[in-house]
Amino acid sequence: MTVFTYRARDRSGHAIDGVMEASDARAVVDRLQRDAYFPITVEPQEERRRFLGFVWPERSGGRVARRDILAFTQQLATLIEAGMPLDRALAIQAELASSPRLRAIIADVLQRVRGGSSLADALAMHHPRPFSRLYVNMVRAGEKGSALEATLRRLVEFLEESGEFRDAMVSALIYPALLAGVGAAAVIFLLAFVVPRFAAIFSDVESTLPLPTLILLRVSETIQRHGWLLGILALGLVAAIRLGLATAGGRLRVDRLLLALPIVGEVIVKIEMTRFSRILGTLLRGGVALVSALAVVTELLGNRVLARAVAGLGDGVRRGAGLAQPMADAGIFPRLAVHMVRVGEETGRLEDTLLKIAATYEADSRKVLKRLIALTEPCVILVMGLVVGFIVVAMLLAILSITDLPV
Length: 407
What we know:
The protein has 2 domains: 2-131, Receptor-associated Protein; 159-407, Receptor-associated Protein (Up-down Bundle). It is 75% helix and 6% strand. It has helices at 25-34, 45-52, 66-81, 86-96, 100-114, 119-124, 133-144, 148-202, 211-246, 248-260, 264-285, 290-300, 304-318, 324-330, 335-347, 350-403, and strands spanning 2-9, 15-22, 38-44. It has a 3-stranded antiparallel beta sheet with strand order 2-1-3. Helix 4 (86-96) packs antiparallel against helix 5 (100-114), helix 7 (133-144) runs antiparallel to helix 8 (148-202) and helix 15 runs antiparallel to helix 16.
């Protein structure tokens, strides 16, 4: 399936812009015509972004920010709770949206709702961006249960909690990444610009230079002469890794390797358990069936090994084994989570228990990540110090060897 951007006019002649996922452009045109729209332009989202990205960056295929989706959901819930009809609430949101792209999407959703479509079906036309399958399923369950405003409030809570957790993870990783980047840049600068100046001085006595100095001079010379080739090789390696991750088998092998790493694997499991528990608990609280909720969770997990395990839980639920026993049989879920899920099933409060599990593993993830970062920072400083120290010592040894030469 390809995501297309389109521009069309309704029966009154008003122009609308939107995006739609379809097999080809013909399918987009047919769907627009069935909805009583008159297509003007239909083109793949990626091509529109490459052609117009510099002039209209937000109208091209850029993503809608999470904060904009959160604000839209929060304001829509408030308007509906105040007794405002859905179409009028959407019309107000189309005016208030700060992003031109989100404004166009809301306008398209409004047109579909006025045309008789449900809100969930209208949002599904813009899946997976910016409305995820979780978002669409929650709204659909809220519409079926005549509790749309309560469902939107639960979505707001979920988006806020997920955003806070994600921001905390990113903030914790900024300093080590910045430290490593600055250190690497400093070493490259020394090797590419500082050391070559000393190389000209040592050229006449190269045969008598100490081994560390010779190694340093060879590395510096390689970077000077073949730096472009090393850059191309680095880019090729990154491209190869990305292509490997784009395949199901490659992504699965990498995820399995990450889970096997000490400390890192523990952090990944805790983060994925936080996501699994929060999404599943939110969906169940919103009225989504357990089997359908597990299918949604499978798509939203980042680690493919754990996603496969979650996909297998649905078979156990269909057989009537519940959720805790298939989790225990999978052998990959933490034992604490399994026991808590079993208690939740026995007490009939599975969704509340899952949300408590999410809170527990979120706190654990932050603690483990802090320990990991506390270990990473001195390691980065130590490595950078050793490299810079080697450069300085190599230069000093060369200078001392020159002063010892007989006149």
